[in-house]
Each structure stands twice: as structure tokens, then as C-alpha cells.
């Protein structure tokens, strides 16, 4: 009997010490009898400060409706395998929660427990699969239609260029300017179709050794001229950058797209800064592009890499999904930090 008791005790100790399981145990008056380290970490509280306290006191900083541990628990509100998103002050978690009441032999409620597992990695894995499914679908549509769109565009463009020439020669200013507008619009459609083609798989990617210093030397004038138009300052602090393996043109596109997003986010004033650091204990370099725009709200951040997700009137929403594909294809990753104000895109690339 005694060894059984100590086995049960050991088991309880093991569960509360587990870094993978959140355990919260309440008595019938909603005082915290036990709370595991993992639960404290996720809830953003200090174990020593909350042990023995009433939950209203222990979680006073969190609005009542948003609490993970609620008083209704003791009234018998059960939860089983409920997936919830939880954000403490510095991290976001996806949790799978179970909770229930505990009763004595007479059937009276003597407390309640909440157990949860951190399934953030699992969820992001699921989301990655969803995203690659969607990209594959778009790829198929793109491959099937891009040529069909491009061919007629090429002949329309050719004729318009002829018109432009004749109108210019015969001094028909109004017709000339209209034709010019039509040509600009056609170029826009062409650019869009090219982005589609990039999202679809088969394409001649020219992998070679890329000097990132040259890449930036070539795109900075473009970024700076855009910035100047809007009174934005560009600070280039990236210094001496290493070599990476990739496609020069595609990498230019990645940095240009992300800089453009930064400029668009800031609008009329601000500072776009570009620097780099080498990731601790990894062989990747991180190019950091920071803007001091309004930041990206949490409910938007999950979607920004989705094809066609945009919050802009004139946006296609393809910019970041194309960037992500280009970076993933060379073994890199794009990370974002955006906390309420300002955004940094970290473009991590394996370097030589
Ligand atoms: N630096 C940033 N600050 C704030 N929001 C951003 C930033 N970068 C991206 N976003 C958000 O992510 C969305 C998607 O960006 P993405 O580049 O994919 O498309 P877009 O910029 O809207 O359109 P396009 O790039 O085709 O012009 C944007 O609409 C915007 O809401
Ligand atoms: Mg964009």
C-alpha cells in the first residue's frame, strides 16, 4: 500500500515537473494548490508568488474572460481536447486543454484541475502543409494560364507600340498619351503573370554564388529613390556581407519586396534600416530589414505569407508569398518580429 502511495506521489511529481505538460490544481475555494513550471512559463507568472493564492489574485493582471484558469471550472464546466491560442507578454502558444472537477467519495466537489500541452510546433506544421497545398494549387493554375495570358498580351503590346510610334510622329498628343497608359497597364499585367510563374514550380533558377554586397549595391538606389519620394530615410548598416548560394535576381526581388513593404507601411515619414547579424550557433546569416511603421497586428501576422493576402487597396498580396518561396528554396527562412510598433523582417540564409 505504501509503495503504491509513493508511486502515485512520484507520478504526480513527474507530471508537475514535466516541461511538456501544464498542470494547474485548485481547491474547492479556487486557491492554487499546485501549478507546474511549464504552466507558469506559459501563463507568464512566478510560481512562488502565486502558490496558495486565490485565482482572482494570482491572475489579477489578465482580464477575467481571457483567463486560461477560470472560476467556472469548479462549477463543473469541463473541457476536453480544446485547442486554444494563448499569448503571454512575449510569446504565442497553441495549447490543447483538458479540465475537470475532482470529487471525494461522497461526491462533493473538492477541487478542479487544468492540464494542457503545448502544440505550437504541431500547429505550425499543419499550417505549413496547408500553405504548401495552396501554393501547389496556385502553381498549377498559374502554369496553365500564364502562357495563355501572355501570348495575346505580347501581340497587343506590339501593336500598341506601333500606334505609339505613329501617334508620336503625327503629333497626336492625346492619342499618344492614352496609348502610353495602355502600355503601362499591360506591363503591370505582365509583371503579375511573372509573379504567378514564380510561384509555380518549373522555372529556370540560376543558382550561383551570390555576393550580397553587390545585391544591395544594386537595389539600394531603387529603395532610396522610393524612400526619398516619401520623405523616408534609409540607413544601410549591413557592412561586409558574406557569400550565399542562390539566384541573384530572385534574391534582389526578395529584399526589394520586403523593403517596399516597409516603405509602404511607414507612409510619409520614418526610417528604414538594414543591418545583419550572424545567428548564434548556426551557419546562417540574418539580414534584418526594420521599419518604424505601425507594426503587424497578431491576427494578421499568420496570414501575411498567404498568396493574395493583402491589406492594401493596390496590393496583389503575392509579394511575401513569392519571397518566402524563394528563401525556402535555398534553405533559408523569413522571421518577423513586430510588437505593436515597427516591424523587422529577418531573412535568414545559409552562408559560405
Ligand atoms: N513592414 C510591414 N509593416 C506592416 N505590415 C506589413 C509589412 N509587410 C507586410 N505587411 C502586411 O502583409 C501584407 C502582405 O504583404 P505582401 O507583400 O505579400 O502583399 P502586399 O504588399 O499587400 O501586395 P504587393 O506586395 O503585391 O504589392 C500587406 O498587405 C501588409 O498588411
Ligand atoms: Mg508587398
Automatic annotation (TrEMBL):
Domain Histidine kinase: start-end pairs: 144-352
Entry keyword annotation includes Transferase: yes
Protein name: histidine kinase
Pfam annotation, one family: HATPase_c
Enzyme Commission code: 2.7.13.3
PROSITE patterns linked: HIS_KIN, PAS
CDD domains reported for this sequence: HisKA, PAS
Catalyses which reaction(s): ATP + protein L-histidine = ADP + protein N-phospho-L-histidine
Amino acid at each position: 500500500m505504501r509503495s503504491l502511495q509513493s508511486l502515485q506521489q512520484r507520478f504526480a511529481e513527474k507530471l508537475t515537473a514535466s516541461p511538456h505538460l501544464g498542470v494547474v490544481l485548485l481547491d474547492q475555494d479556487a486557491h492554487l494548490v499546485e501549478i507546474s513550471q511549464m504552466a507558469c512559463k506559459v501563463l507568464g507568472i512566478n510560481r512562488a508568488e502565486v502558490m496558495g493564492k486565490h485565482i482572482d489574485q494570482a491572475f489579477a493582471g489578465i482580464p477575467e474572460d481571457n483567463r486560461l484558469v477560470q472560476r467556472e471550472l469548479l462549477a463543473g464546466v469541463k473541457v476536453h481536447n480544446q485547442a486554444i491560442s494563448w499569448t503571454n507578454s512575449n510569446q504565442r502558444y497553441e495549447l490543447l486543454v483538458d479540465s475537470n472537477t475532482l470529487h471525494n467519495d461522497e461526491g462533493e466537489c473538492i477541487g478542479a484541475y487544468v492540464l494542457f500541452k503545448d502544440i505550437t510546433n504541431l500547429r505550425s506544421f499543419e499550417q505549413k502543409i496547408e500553405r504548401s497545398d495552396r501554393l501547389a494549387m496556385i502553381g498549377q493554375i498559374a502554369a496553365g494560364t500564364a502562357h495563355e495570358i501572355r501570348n495575346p498580351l505580347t501581340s497587343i503590346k506590339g501593336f500598341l507600340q506601333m500606334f505609339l510610334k505613329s501617334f508620336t510622329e503625327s503629333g497626336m498628343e492625346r492619342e499618344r498619351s492614352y496609348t502610353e497608359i495602355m502600355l503601362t497597364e499591360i506591363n503591370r499585367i505582365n509583371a503579375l503573370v511573372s509573379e504567378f510563374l514564380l510561384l509555380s514550380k518549373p522555372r529556370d533558377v540560376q543558382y550561383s554564388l551570390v555576393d550580397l554586397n553587390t545585391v544591395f549595391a544594386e537595389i539600394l538606389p531603387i529603395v532610396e529613390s522610393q524612400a526619398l519620394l516619401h520623405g523616408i530615410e534609409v540607413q544601410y548598416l549591413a557592412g561586409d556581407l558574406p557569400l550565399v548560394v542562390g539566384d541573384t535576381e530572385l534574391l534582389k526581388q526578395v529584399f526589394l519586396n520586403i523593403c517596399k513593404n516597409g516603405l509602404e507601411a511607414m507612409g510619409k515619414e520614418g526610417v528604414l534600416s538594414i543591418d545583419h547579424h550572424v545567428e548564434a550557433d548556426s551557419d546562417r546569416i540574418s539580414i534584418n530589414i526594420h521599419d518604424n511603421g505601425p507594426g503587424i497586428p497578431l491576427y494578421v501576422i499568420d496570414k501575411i505569407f498567404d498568396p493574395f493576402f493583402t491589406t492594401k487597396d493596390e496590393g496583389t498580396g503575392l509579394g511575401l508569398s513569392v519571397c518566402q518561396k524563394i528563401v525556402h528554396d535555398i534553405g533559408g527562412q523569413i522571421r518577423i518580429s513586430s510588437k505593436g510598433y515597427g516591424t523587422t523582417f529577418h531573412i535568414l540564409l545559409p552562408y559560405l
